Amino acid sequence: MTMIAVAALVAAFAPVFARAETVSVPAGAENLQAILDAARPGDVIRLRAGVHRGPLRIATALTLEGEGGAVLSGTGTGSVVTVAAPGAVVRGLEIHGSGADIGSLDSGVFLDKAAAGAIVEDNAILGNLYGVYIRGARDALVRGNRIEGMREGRSAEAGNGVHLWNAPGAKVIGNDIRFGRDGIFTNASRRNVFSGNRMRDLRFAVHYMYTNESEISDNVSTGNSVGYAIMYSDRLTITGNVSDGDRDHGLLLNTAKGSTVSGNWVKGRMQPVSRWTNAGRQSDTHGVAMESDAGHDVADRRLGPEKCVFIYNANRNRFSGNRFENCAIGIHFTAGSEGNRMSGNAFIRNRNQVKYVGTRYLDWSAEGRGNYWSDNPAFDLDGDGIADTPYRPNDLVDRVLWTAPQAKILTNSPAVQVIRWAQSQFPALLPGGVVDSRPLMAPPDEGMGMP
Questions:
Q1: What is the pTM of this model?
Q2: In the beta sheet, which residues pair with residue 6?
């Protein structure tokens, strides 16, 4: 761009910049909505410490920000702040007091379709039905907020921390989200980025529905029912995420295709059995076929997640560099899932490394490299880091136990031991299932700074 063009551009916008001003508003001011309505693009409306009354509607590209201790309180009906202007900013406020009507989408901050490029950052959004609802606002940014939803009642009656609907390009980055239904929920969207968020005490930390070509990276899910639930969504990048002590699944892929799943860590732990027996608030399965608890020991503590990964009718995904550790089942693979590539992952101390419901043979290695299995008693005589014999995580006895859990009492019987010995000596007796033809001798993340 030439200097003349730059000068002309600056001259064109100079009147706008010249008019921009900062308006300081004391707590309890009765004319706050009138001040917003009279503001011009670029103005900063700064709320002083104390309580300010909502609801408010922002229809101009202004910045609404709070000094330390500024609180924006709704009336318990509708949304506290509704943004209907492109490029508007809501920053540095404590926001509470939305309504509780799911049908009306009552929210702490509501971004409607006109709020393209709007920013919601560094707020404490507390006790609202939805924290931030992005309805059609392209390229919106929700960053650095502390969002806590409603704590009482069933999760199905609560809203989500951040909810997106048809919001292409929207980003949710570096937020701390707790309580309510799901941490981040997205539906019918694309090109979104959810990165660096911390989520706990929820049903699903991240819940994807019909959202494509997006990124889920470097998030941490702690103590939720499910960490990352990816449903009916394609061409995603899921990388660097942590699921720590989630209850049912660390990662769930249901009818998800063409995604890259790499560098994630699902870590299970022994948890109070009451997390399952008192799970009335978190019983919604959204149509995914969940198994009964038949066959599980009823004790004071139980291993969770039940499944580090649950793959249900998910095809052509690439799994590499992930660590699946200390779950009841490392990976459950079912419902015709095909064309998935598994290599360079670590399966460590899972009670059952793999549960595969199918009759096909699947080789979980690629380009001469398989996965690490902590229960693989293999040798590496040539020292190339690859075990000298293939690894098979399941046998005929496993298939019997999956279909008839009561047979578990026979696991240590001489007859079962003979069957397992025979299958190990004569692999042709094995049913179709997973085989790793090039298993690794050490976890691929060893020495690489896995979180």
A1: 0.85
A2: none
